[in-house]
Every structure is written in C-alpha cells, then in structure tokens.
C-alpha cells in the first residue's frame, strides 16, 4: 500500500487550459509573463518602477495570470446560479479541475468508491472574500471604528454609493462561499465524495502538504482514492504589493531560477488536481498511471532568521524523510522539479540542501541530475506551486522526456555543475537507467518554513495490445465508435478540432485508445458520433465534423457522422426493440459481432448447448460454418425446425449485448417467432426456456406437413383490397398484416398461384416468399396443438417492459394474457402494423431492429401516421461489416439521448486510456463585481423596466404617487386594478411588461377545481419559460429571486401566466412576502383554488410552456358595453379629482405659445424652456420654415395616400437619400411616426421563436413592437453590457433570431451605450443589432451623424438604424436605415409603411432642410455641446446629482423623492423655468428627478441663471424637508 499511483491530472495555468497545453508550454519553454490584465484592477494606480518600499506601489507590472477566471457552468454541477456568484472563483476552478481530473482518470462513467474518496486542497487566501468585505472595512475606517477620529458622513455616503456601483450585495451564500475550507467541500459536494475533505494552508507548500495528508490516508486505508491539488487566483493587488515590499518580485518581470541574472519571481496563478489511489488498486483496475509516489517528506525550518528566510537544515530534513519513506537513494533521481523562486537566498539554500543530501548517499559517485523549475514559465503560483511542479514531473516521467528550461546563465555561486546538476535548454529523451526505473522529485517550500519533498517513479509497464485481440482481429482494422460532446455546437466544433489536432500530433494514439478514452466520459447535451477504423479515417472525419459544426450543420452529416442535441431525460424518446421472424436468416449473419464481442459469443455458446440436441446439429457450425459459402448450411437454415431456434438464440444474444451496453427497451415486439426473444427482453421468459421452446415449436411446425404443400405470397394491397382479391379463392388466408399497403397471403400452393395470377392481371405487385410452410394460417393449426402442452408448462413471469403482441396487435399486461395469445400463435395472422401503431402511441419513439437488416423498420415507418416524429435505427447490415453498422446504430442512440455505455465493447487489452482535451462546458461569468476597473457601473441597473414615454401610464403612476404622498383619500388598492371581466378578456402574453399588468380584484369569478398535478406542472412550466432555465434543472426548493434571478418584471410575467390559466386567481402584493420558492408558488395557488398539494412528481408537458388561450364567457354589464362606465375611465377621472382636491395644478397639456426653442410662453408667462427636443434650434429656423411653406404650395399639406401606391413625391426620396448619406448606410426609409416605426419594424421582422433583448430603459415603442411580434422579450440592466453578454450566453441557443435593441442616447440618464462592445457581443452570439437614435441623431458625431459617427464604427455592423425626425430635424416622423436589401424589402412589406399615408410634404421638406442646414451651420452642433457641457459643469459644481449624463444635452437632476420632485418643478415654474419631473415608477424612487433638455439656442446666461435657481430651490426644499423630519 506504500506506493501511490497518480491516475488522473488536470490543470489550469497561464497559457495552458489543460495538461496537454501545459506540457506544450513546458516543451517550448514559453514564458507567460504579461502586464496586469485591466479586468483585475487599475494597475496604473499602483505601479511605479521607481518606488521601492512604498506599501501602495508595485515596482513591476508583469504577472502571469489566467483568463476568464469568472467563467463557470453551475447548472452542470447542480449549483444554483446565485450560489455560484457567491462562490470564490478558486472554488469554482477546483470544481472544474475535479471534473477534468476524474475525466482524465477515466472515472467519469466508471464506478469508484465515492464514499471513501477524499479531497485534500492547498489554499492560502481568498481575494474574493477580501473584495466582498471591502465595503465593511471601508466603513470601519470612515465611521472611526479603527482610529480615534470622528465619523465622516460624506465619506460613508461615498462608500455606500461606490459599493452600490461596484459590488453585488452580500447574500446567504457569501460567507460559506468564500471560506477557504469550502474549496475542498465544494468538490466533495459536486461529486458526492464522502471521504475526508479539508484545506491545508502552508503558504507556498500548501499543495504538497495536502498531498502528504492524502498519501497518509491512502496508506492507512481510511481513503481508497483522493483528489489532491492547490489553487491560487490573484483578484486584488495585495499580494503583488506585499511581495514588492519585501523585494521578492522580479523588477525586470522575468523569473530566472538558478540564473546569475535572477532578481525574484513573477507572481503567477492557476491550479491543478491529481487523482490518487494505491498502486496495487490502480493496476488491478487497469488505470493509466502517470507516475508513482514513492515517498513524501515534510519538515519545518524551526528557528529561522525570519518567516521568509529559508533554512538549509529544514529542507535537508524534508529530503531525508522523503527518501527514507521512498526507500530509494537520492542519487537515483535524474530530474528534480525544484522550488526555484529565483531569489538569491532561496536558490542558494535549495541547491545547498540538495547537494548535501545527494552527497550523503553517494559521495563522490553522485550521478548527474537535471534541475528545473516551472516558475520560469508561469511564475510563482504560491499555494498551487507544488501541484504545478507535481503535474510537470508526472508528465515528464509519463512521456520519458527531460523538459527544458528557458535560456539560463547558471549562477556561478551555486556551483551547479560541481554538485552534479545540469540545466537543459532543450527537451531530451529520458533514457531508462539500467538498474532502476526512471525517478524524479518535486520540492515545495513555504513561507514560515514548511518544506515538502516528493519522490516519484515511473509507472510499471502495462501490457496494451495495439495489434491483435484474443479473437485474432487486428485492432487497427476494427471500426470504432467515437462519441464527442460539449455544452454547445460552437464548443463541440472547437472540441472536435482539438481532439483531431491531438491525434494528428501524437502518432501513438490509436483509434481504439481514443475511442476507449471517449467512452469513459459522460456525454454532454450536444453530441457528435462517428465511426472510423484507421487514424487517417478518424482524423479526416473529425475535420469534416468540425467544419460542418462551425457552419451550423447538424443531423446526419454523411459518412456516418451525426450531430444532435440530446433531449433531456424527461423528453427522451421511448425505445422500441423489434425482433424479426423467419426470412432474415443468413449464413454468417452477426458473425462479426460474435468474433468481436465476447459477451455475444458467450450467450450464443450457452444457449446452443440446449438447442443442438433438438436440431440434430451444431447451431454454430450452421450459422458460421468454416466455409462462408457452405450450401448445406444455407439449406439447413431454411428448415423451420432449425431456423426458429436460431433466430431466437441470435435475438437473445443481441438483447444481452445491448443490455451490457446499458441499452434496454421500453417497449418490445416481435414479428412472428421474433415474439419469443422479445418476451425474453420484456422479462417474461427465461432465455434458456425460450430457446428450448423455440426448438420444440420449430419441430412441431415442421411435422405439420411436407415442405412445399403450401406457401406465402406478399401482396402490395390494403386489407380491404386484399379481401376483394381473395374473393372466390379457397384455401388462402391473410398470414401477415405487415403495413397499411401490404398483406402476406398464406395458403395452399395452387391457391396462391391463382391469387398471384389475379394480382398480375390488375397490376398489383405480388411476390412469393421462400418459406417451408404456409405459416400463420389454419393449415398449420396442428402446430398450435402440438406445442400446447409445453406452452402450458412454460414458466412465464410478470413483464417488466411493455410487450405488444403481434398476435392480438395489443399490449399484453400479464403472463396469462401472453399465454393465451401464444396458444394460437402458429395459426393466427401476424398483426405487425397494428402492433407498431400501438407502440407508437404518444409519439417520440426510437424503433430499433435488433438484427436482420432493416426490413421491419421499413414496415414500421409505413405503419405510423407521422414517421417524422419517430426514429428508426438498424443494428446490422446485409452482410457482416466488423460491427460498423452496429456501432453506427449505437451512435444514433447516443445522439438521441438514449443512455449507452460503450465500455463493455472493449476487451481488457483494448482499454488503453490516453490524454485528450476535456469535454467543454458552456460557461458564463459569475462575479460579485458589477463593472471592470476603469469602466463605471450603471447606477440604474436594478430599476424596473418601464416604457419611458408611455405618457398615459406615466401620468397615472405619478398621480398615484402624489396621492399616496399627500395622504389623500381616494381609490383603494383593489380599485386600482381593472375589473375582473376586463382582466380575463385579455390573454396575458409572456412578453407583456409590468406597466400593462394588473391583478384581478376580489370579486373574481369562481375558480374551477384544479388537479394538484396540473398546478405543479404549470407552475414549473411557467417558471421554466420565463426564466429560460431548463425545465429539468428546476427544483421545488429553488428560490425564484434568490436562486433563479427573477426580477420584478419576470415576477409580473409569472403572475400573468398563472392568471391566464386560473383567471379567477387573486394575488395581493402582501401575499408575495411569504412566497419565495417554486414550491411556495405551488402551495399558494393550490390554497386559493382549493387543492391540496402533497409531494407530486413534476412531468413536462409542452403545453405547459405555451398554454392555449382559455375560452371565457362574459356577461353584458355596463363595464363591457358602456365606455363611460369602463373601470379604467372612472379611475382616470378619479385621479384628476385627487389633483384638484389637493391643490395641485395639472402639469400636463399646458398650452405653449410660439416655437419650442430656448424660451416659451404659458398663460402669458415667459419661461426658459428645458422641456423640448429642439436640440439644434432648427424648428422655427427661417430656411426650414421656408422649405415647409414651399412644399405645401407645391404638393399640398398631405400626399393623401400610401407612398407604395400613389403617394410618393420627390421630397420623399430626397429625404431618404439624405438620411442614408448622413448615416452612411445604403438606404433609408421615412415613416409618419417615430413611435410607429419601432412598433411596425420590430413587429414585422420578428415573431414567435425569436428573442428580443433590450435595455431596461427602452422606449415604449420598442416594448410595443416586441408585443406585436410575439417574440420572447428579455430586458437587461441599463447599459450593462456584461449583463447582456451573460443573458445571451445562457439562452441564445433556445431561439431562432435574436435582436438586441438599444438607444443611441438615453433620454432618462443622458448616457451613451458602448456601441463597439455591443457590436462585439452581437457578433459573438450571432445576433442582430438595432439602434434607436431618437436622441442621438443630429446630436452625436462631428457632423451630427449619430452614435455610429461618434464611435467611428463600420455602419454595416449595425443591422438597423432607427431614428425620429421630430427632435434635431424639426419635423415629425421616423425613419429606418440599413442595407439596401432590407430597406427594399420593408418598402414593399412593412405594414406601418405600406398601409399608412406617406410623410406630409411640409414635414418631409422641413426635415430635409434641417439636415442640409445642419451641414451649412456646423456651429450649431458645437454650440449645443458647449451649452450642455456648461450646464453639466455648473450643476456638478453646485452639488447637483446629474447621474451618468456625459457628452449629451440630456441632463437629469436626481432628487430621490417623487413628491419633492414635483414641488421643485412647481417652484422652478414660478421662477420662470419649465422642466418636467420624472417620478416613480418610471425610475426608482431614490432616482426620481427633473430632466433638462439643453438646446443650442440656450444662452450661457440662461443656463447660469437656471442652475443658480435650481440650486437655491433645491437647498430650500431640502432644508424644509429636514425641518419637518427633525
């Protein structure tokens, strides 16, 4: 038990996503030192190469870090997404590495002792925990807890604001998610490992101390296997600054161990895991062994000069212990993976210790040894350093290669050569020593003085046959089934290419070894299956598959290559085994399977021992004679006394082989005598009894009469046509109803000849069959009598599979029913077609013909009403083909999601595990950080989504807020909802937004009783659809908000879905406080509809995800027939009454006199106006007005028709071309309304099955377009590109077309989206991109060309450019622009264009003139930005919160209270300033604001006066509020 085998490896180090890439990095000696990635922290703030000893500065900017450390696939491990966000990325990396290590060990599908498998991990720190604790630590500083100073309220507020922008709030998982010990426990939990599980912290030697613990547990027997490793991720600058402070880090940014230029290490990161088990167990199980751990030594430096100063004596103690434990001499070690930190003291002490121990053992005879340190390539990974060295040394032994170091100038002070150490700068073949196995050692020394040394030895040679098997068939000529899988088609394409490259570059990899290795893996959802026999064939087909996958191809790709998305377990098709009857028997059939698969051979041998006596011959010699063309054997197989037991034995042997592969039928049926092996597969009959019965049955049939007294004729006719054909022909009966268009006649020879002649006369195809008797007719009824006695004694068992008898064409449910059918089996017709139709009920079946080609499948396909809803799989061809057809069939089953275990198909000598890239998962980012450093987070990320310019809803909600704030009496909460009748009359759509949702009142109609299962299923179905989580993933204890990430809009959609199915269901806001999990929703609904809900299994029904609209009956009350009595109209009137009762003036529909420019007049009062969108002051411009007047004179005030038919005017195309020229697109199209443009374009181009994702602050027109389209709609947090990326990563593959819609300038916050990043996201996910430029066209860009000009992007990268003509362009209408093809298509098909009048001549002329004038007067655009910048600058100086506004003329003033917002707007109006308030729920209450629209016409004096008055009134308002609350 002392020797411990390393049987699996996994690692993730800089430049290396797996062990193969790690080895390639090592062989190339490729350094991985780079600048600090911008996504970690803003290193420029902490970097100064000239500052040494500054605790807040690093003198280097070089590190060796991983990419994508936040990527993870929690669903694969059953981890709730919210918990994944709270998990330290180090823990997530460990879970991923554990999967890859177990997969590499070949244990992913193979059973191992999970209950006694331990997890031993080296970790030292959690930067993620530090990030999570940052706000609290900062508050301790700000509130005076950590010093004698006073609390700083402003600093505390700033900390709270920064925290809200930068970090997700803590949650229940936050504490356990960042504790070090949870790193090991997360692995144990994910893989159900019951052995010891803990984390070791011994600083840089942590991983190897964990290894020592694992070795002790394995040797003592308390563990039978162990996962061991270490991990380190550097998420904050703490470690780098700390090591710079002590001078341990290289100032040159290069780690050079044992080099005269060495000046310290480079900070690295990564992780690795190894799978261990006792060597004897590994060899017994046939594991691939990378290396053997012979001994481990651990010590501490004890009294050293300091915690960071190593001591030779301590390291010597560890070395001595290790070699004593291993029982080998240090001088036999030919390769040492040293600790090698490239520090002066560290390297000197390490070499001194090695020299001393080697000299003690061998004296002057010390053999040369190669010295190496991977820190020269990937830096110092701290607690993971030991496992980095262990994996490297294990690979070196496994591949018999001395790995190189990068170019090194040995430090002369170390005297390496004199001590027998060599450093190779190139990879060397590692020749085997003459008197002992190859040996290596690994050292790891930690701060604080804990030292570890591990002695390794190469694995014992394992005999693997790469040429022949026991059966004598050359392995290289055998075809093999290869199953590759991934989480998505794109990943599968990459995976296929990576596996192909691995095979192509490793000539030792045989098809058998690759197939076996892949067979040990659990398949992921997207699967590729193919069959190949040679390396060239395999490489070629993998390449073909990769190319096809990249192009989006799936299904049958030809040459036996198949790609499919396996359905979930709940949607998995049922498997139907079909067993053939007489007629398929051939000499040599299934001989390839008998030769290749021992279990098939053994089953046949066992059964034929009881058959041979009955048939008077050897079954084996007849089916597989020495001479393939044996005429006597061919003739013998036509005899029914021989044929029937042969078919039974072969069918049973195939069932056994398939069962070995884990393939078991759900339903079975057999044609004629195929019914008996089918009964064995159904569990009704013992295999030996079945073979014995078929022997007697065949003999009884043969004894009925002489061969040739009758026969059978296949007639291509329906049952009705057949009945007409046999009219007046005696001694002919229907023997088989095979399919709707074929009946096999059975009868006397001359009668059949008469029938054949009649068929020929009328052109009905009829074919005689080669049979010995008129089977399944009254002519052989005596056979039923002959077998009756034995049938009565035949022991039948209860069936454990669905058995469909072809005697009755119905399901047999018990042995008595089966026996009853078999009493007439010989003489009754075969009702195969009827049996197939019964088996196919409910659809989604996989019909598998066990052997005998595909004849039954052809009949089955013609017998089912919808063949496309089923699958048909053959497992044997016309001739033996070394199992290729069998493997292709298994591959089809794998692709269809049927569990298939290929491991039993490999003989012991063929089980050669090799290293291949791990199967890739679909990952997405999980992090508590909201934004990357240097890029601000969005302050409105959590606000509810509302149609920003839905004025009716906006006004209604504002008045509700005012009523609540002033305490006015008025409408009750239940009265705010539409009447139940109205609610029920409108079917809630899944994409309906929160503004249009209302819950029914208390007087809803009675709810009919609902089954408990229906409630549970529909709740789960609705949650699955709205959340986009797989139905199969959901559990009752999932919290819809906490675990599944529901926001308020999704909750509203969920409630709407419930009310669609249960129209009388009432839900009050207060009810939601007690509803957390899916089970809570089930219980709450059940309580309201009067149904008890004990634990009920959830079944998936497609209708649950898309329930049909329910038909309702309505009465004829006035609320339905009199508009004045509509509840919503009455509520509207009541709201305005509340305004008057509370002395509040209606701020809407004020009458403005004159042009909307910088000034306006209301009721004789002059005001500075910040409430219009006349950004460039072109509305009212003399040239624009003149153009409108001239157009009116020429063309009238309206074109009076749609442009498509008779309404086009020269102005229209001139405007279209001017827009296209401005936008730099191929074409454009003007429409009469900006709002309608979005509605009609989105509604026209997208539909059910598509996805539209939009910013949470999207304009109402976008939301209305989504509703019209019927597409699924999903918002993402405002201006949060990472959230968009995450959303699409999760759900993109579920939809056909995907449209991303954003605005060029957001009219609420005055901010601009990151268009280049949006384009990158669009391309990455295969989506379309639409920009609404209502507030950016004429505003952004050097010439007013909009956001595209602003960022300088290629305009064609945006698919649709939309904008309005009513803002900068002084007219009224909208436009859509893009490629010529799409615009031309829209001209002829867009409903809002084709069926609408064209733009009025004066509006078209005004906008055209405005565009031209904008170019004539570019100073207007310059002035606009100067004025906007002045307003923003003055507002900030006055302490006004302007949110995220930057570079636009939209400037908010955030007040944070809706009532005060209205009061401030009124105060400004009284002082001569017009501005609109924006209240909850248009924004969050804490973000209620005034919104100022600056124009080019505003003067600096107007702006200065406005900001001064704003600051004064705001101060007065806040002072008054403070006084009231004091």
UniProtKB/TrEMBL annotation:
Residues in domain Ketosynthase family 3 (KS3)? Answer: 1-458
Q: Which residues form the Carrier domain?
A: 1013-1089
What does the record give as cofactor?
A: pyridoxal 5'-phosphate
InterPro entries with a match to the protein in the record: Ac_transferase_dom_sf, ACP-like_sf, Acyl_transferase_dom, Acyl_Trfase/lysoPLipase, Aminotrans_II_pyridoxalP_BS, Aminotransferase_I/II_large, Ketoacyl_synth_AS, Ketoacyl_synth_C
Superkingdom of this protein's organism: Bacteria
Keyword annotations of the record: Aminotransferase, Phosphopantetheine, Phosphoprotein, Pyridoxal phosphate, Transferase
SUPFAM superfamilies per the record?
A: ACP-like (SSF47336), FabD/lysophospholipase-like (SSF52151), PLP-dependent transferases (SSF53383), Probable ACP-binding domain of malonyl-CoA ACP transacylase (SSF55048), Thiolase-like (SSF53901)
Q: Which GO terms describe its molecular function?
A: transaminase activity
* PANTHER family from the UniProt entry: FATTY ACID SYNTHASE (PTHR43775), SI:DKEY-61P9.11 (PTHR43775:SF37)
Name of the protein in its database record: Aminotransferase class I/II-fold pyridoxal phosphate-dependent enzyme
Q: Which organism is it from?
A: Kibdelosporangium philippinense
Q: What is the lineage of its organism?
A: Bacteria, Bacillati, Actinomycetota, Actinomycetes, Pseudonocardiales
């Amino acid at each position: 038990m002392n020797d411990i085998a390393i049987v699996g490896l996994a690692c993730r180090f800089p430049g290396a996503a797996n062990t193969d890439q790690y080895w390639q990095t090592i062989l190339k000696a490729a350094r991985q030192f780079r600048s600090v990635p911008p996504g970690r922290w803003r290193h420029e703030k902490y970097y100064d190469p000239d500052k040494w000893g500054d605790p807040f500065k690093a003198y280097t900017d070089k590190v060796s870090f991983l990419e994508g450390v936040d990527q993870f696939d929690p669903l694969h491990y059953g981890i709730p997404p919210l918990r994944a966000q709270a998990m330290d990325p180090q823990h997530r990396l460990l879970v991923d590495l554990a999967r890859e290590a177990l997969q590499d060990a070949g244990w992913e599908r193979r059973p191992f002792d999970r209950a006694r498998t331990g997890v031993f991990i080296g970790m030292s720190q959690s930067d993620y925990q530090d990030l999570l604790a940052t706000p609290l630590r900062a508050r301790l500083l700000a509130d005076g807890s950590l010093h004698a100073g006073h609390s700083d309220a402003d600093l505390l507020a700033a900390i709270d604001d920064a925290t809200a922008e930068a970090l997700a709030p803590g949650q229940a998982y936050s504490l356990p998610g960042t504790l070090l010990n949870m790193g090991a426990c997360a692995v144990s939990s994910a893989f159900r490992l019951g052995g010891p599980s803990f984390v070791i912290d011994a600083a840089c030697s942590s991983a190897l101390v964990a290894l020592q613990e694992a070795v002790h547990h394995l040797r003592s027997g308390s563990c039978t296997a162990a996962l061991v490793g270490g991990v380190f991720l550097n998420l904050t600058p703490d470690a780098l600054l700390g090591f710079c402070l002590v001078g341990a880090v290289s100032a040159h940014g290069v780690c050079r161990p044992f080099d005269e230029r060495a000046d310290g290490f480079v900070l690295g990161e990564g992780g690795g895991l190894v799978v261990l088990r006792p060597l004897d167990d590994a060899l017994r199980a046939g594991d691939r062994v990378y290396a053997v751990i012979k001994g481990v030594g651990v010590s501490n430096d004890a009294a050293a000069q300091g915690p960071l100063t190593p001591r030779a004596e301590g390291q010597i103690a560890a070395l001595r212990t290790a070699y004593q434990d291993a029982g080998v001499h240090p001088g036999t070690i030919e390769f040492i993976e040293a600790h090698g930190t490239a520090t002066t003291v560290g390297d000197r002490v390490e070499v001194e210790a090695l020299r001393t121990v080697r000299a003690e053992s061998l004296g002057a005879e010390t053999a040369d040894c190669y010295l190496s340190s991977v820190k020269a390539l990937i830096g110092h990974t701290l607690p993971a350093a030991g496992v980095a060295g262990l994996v490297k040394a294990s690979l070196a032994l496994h591949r018999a290669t001395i790995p190189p170091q990068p170019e090194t100038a040995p430090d002369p002070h170390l005297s390496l050569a004199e001590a027998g150490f060599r450093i190779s700068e190139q990879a060397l073949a590692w020749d085997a020593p003459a008197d002992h196995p190859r040996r290596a050692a690994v050292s790891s020394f930690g701060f604080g003085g804990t030292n570890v040394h591990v002695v390794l030895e190469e694995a014992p040679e394992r005999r693997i046959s790469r040429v022949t098997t026991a059966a004598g068939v050359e392995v290289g000529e055998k075809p093999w089934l290869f199953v590759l899988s991934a989480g998505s088609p794109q990943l599968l394409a990459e995976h296929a290419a990576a596996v192909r490259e691995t095979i192509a570059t490793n000539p030792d990899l045989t098809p058998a070894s690759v197939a076996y290795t892949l067979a040990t893996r659990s398949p992921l959802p997207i699967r590729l299956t193919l069959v190949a026999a040679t390396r060239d064939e395999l490489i070629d087909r993998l390449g073909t598959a990769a190319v096809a996958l990249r192009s989006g191809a799936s299904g049958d790709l030809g040459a036996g290559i198949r790609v499919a998305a396996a359905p979930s377990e709940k949607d998995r098709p049922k498997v139907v085994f079909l067993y053939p009857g007489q007629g398929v028997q051939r000499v040599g059939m299934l001989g390839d399977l008998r030769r290749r698969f021992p279990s098939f051979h053994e089953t046949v041998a066992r059964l034929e021992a009881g058959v041979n006596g009955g048939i008077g011959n050897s079954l084996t010699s007849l089916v597989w004679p020495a001479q393939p063309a044996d005429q006597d054997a061919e003739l013998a197989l036509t005899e029914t006394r021989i044929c029937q037991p042969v078919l039974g034995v072969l069918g049973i042997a195939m069932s056994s082989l398939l069962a070995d592969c884990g393939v078991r039928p759900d339903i079975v049926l057999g044609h004629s005598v195929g019914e008996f092996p089918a009964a064995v597969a159904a569990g009704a009959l013992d295999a030996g009894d079945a073979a014995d019965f078929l022997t007697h049955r065949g003999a009884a049939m043969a004894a009925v009469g002489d061969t040739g007294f009758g026969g059978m004729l296949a007639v291509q006719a329906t049952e009705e046509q057949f009945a007409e054909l046999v009219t007046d022909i005696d001694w002919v009966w229907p023997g088989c109803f095979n399919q709707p268009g074929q009946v096999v006649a059975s009868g006397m020879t001359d009668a059949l000849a008469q029938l054949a002649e009649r068929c020929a006369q009328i052109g009905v195809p009829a074919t005689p069959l080669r049979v010995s008797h008129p089977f399944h007719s009254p002519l052989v009824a005596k056979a039923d009598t002959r077998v009756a006695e034995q049938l009565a004694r035949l022991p039948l068992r209860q069936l454990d599979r669905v058995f469909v008898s072809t005697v009755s064409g119905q399901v047999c449910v018990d042995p008595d029913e089966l026996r009853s059918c078999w009493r007439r089996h010989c003489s009754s017709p075969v009702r195969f077609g009827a049996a197939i139709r019964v088996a196919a009920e409910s659809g989604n079946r996989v019909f598998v013909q066990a052997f005998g080609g595909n004849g039954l499948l052809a009949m089955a396909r013609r017998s089912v009403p919808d063949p496309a809803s089923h699958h048909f799989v053959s497992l044997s061809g016309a001739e033996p083909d070394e199992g290729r057809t069998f493997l292709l069939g298994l591959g089809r089953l794998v692709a269809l999601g049927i569990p298939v275990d290929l491991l039993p198909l490999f003989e012991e000598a063929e089980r050669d595990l090799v290293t291949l890239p791990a199967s890739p998962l679909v990952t997405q980012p999980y992090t508590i950080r909201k934004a990357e450093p240097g890029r601000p987070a969005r302050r409105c990320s959590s606000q509810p989504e509302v149609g920003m310019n839905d004025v009716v809803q906006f006004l209604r909600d504002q008045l509700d807020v005012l009523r609540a704030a002033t305490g006015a009496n008025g409408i009750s909460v239940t009265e705010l909802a539409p009447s139940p009748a109205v609610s029920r009359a409108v079917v809630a759509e899944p994409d309906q937004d929160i503004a249009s949702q209302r819950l029914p009142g208390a007087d809803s109609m009675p709810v009919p009783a609902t089954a408990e299962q229906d409630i549970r299923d529909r709740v789960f179905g609705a949650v699955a659809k709205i959340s986009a989580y797989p139905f199969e993933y959901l559990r009752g204890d999932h919290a819809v908000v906490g675990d599944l990430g529901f926001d308020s809009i999704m909750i509203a959609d969920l409630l709407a879905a419930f009310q669609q199915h249960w129209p009388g269901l009432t839900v009050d806001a207060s009810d939601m406080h007690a509803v957390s999990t899916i089970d809570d929703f089930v219980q709450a609904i059940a309580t309201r509809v009067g149904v008890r809900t004990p634990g009920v299994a959830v079944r998936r029904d497609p209708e649950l995800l898309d329930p049909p609209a329910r038909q309702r009956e309505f009465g004829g009350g006035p609320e339905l027939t009199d508009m004045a009595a509509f509840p919503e109209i009455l509520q509207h009137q009541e709201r305005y009454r509340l305004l008057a009762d509370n002395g509040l003036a209606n701020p809407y529909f004020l009458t403005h006199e004159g042009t909307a420019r910088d000034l306006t007049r209301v009721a004789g009062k002059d005001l500075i106006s910040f409430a219009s969108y006349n950004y460039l002051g072109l509305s009212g411009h003399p040239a624009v007005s003149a153009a409108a007047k001239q157009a009116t004179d020429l063309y009238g005030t309206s074109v009076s028709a749609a442009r498509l038919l008779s309404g086009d005017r020269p102005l229209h195309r001139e405007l279209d071309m001017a827009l296209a020229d401005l936008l730099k697109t191929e074409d454009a199209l003007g429409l009469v309304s900006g709002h309608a443009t979005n509605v009609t374009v989105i509604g026209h181009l997208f539909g059910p099955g598509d996805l539209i994702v939009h910013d949470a602050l999207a304009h109402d027109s976008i939301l209305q377009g989504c509703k019209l389209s019927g597409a699924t709609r999903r918002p993402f947090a405002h201006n949060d590109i990472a959230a968009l990326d995450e959303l699409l990563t999760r759900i993109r593959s579920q939809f056909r077309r995907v449209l991303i819609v954003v605005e060029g300038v957001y009219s609420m916050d005055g901010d601009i989206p990151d268009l280049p990043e949006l384009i990158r996201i669009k391309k990455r996910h295969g989506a379309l991109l639409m920009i609404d430029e209502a507030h950016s066209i004429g505003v952004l860009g050097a010439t007013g060309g909009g956001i595209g000009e602003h960022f300088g992007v290629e305009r064609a990268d945006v698919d649709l450019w939309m904008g309005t003509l009513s803002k900068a362009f002084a007219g009224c209408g909208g436009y859509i622009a893009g490629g010529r093809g799409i615009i031309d298509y829209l001209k002829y098909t867009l409903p809002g264009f084709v069926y609408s009048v064209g733009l009025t001549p004066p509006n078209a002329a005004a906008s055209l003139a405005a565009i031209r004038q904008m170019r004539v007067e570019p100073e207007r655009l310059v002035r606009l930005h100067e004025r906007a910048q002045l307003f923003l600058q003055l507002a900030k100086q006055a302490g006004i919160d302007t949110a995220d506004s930057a570079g636009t003329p939209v400037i908010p003033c955030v007040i944070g209270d809706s009532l005060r917002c209205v009061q401030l707007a009124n105060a400004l109006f009284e002082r001569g300033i017009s501005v609109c308030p924006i209240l909850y729920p248009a924004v969050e209450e804490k973000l209620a604001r005034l919104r100022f629209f600056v124009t080019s016409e505003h003067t600096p004096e107007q702006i200065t006066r406005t900001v001064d008055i704003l600051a004064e009134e705001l101060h007065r308002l806040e002072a008054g509020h403070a006084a009231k609350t004091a």
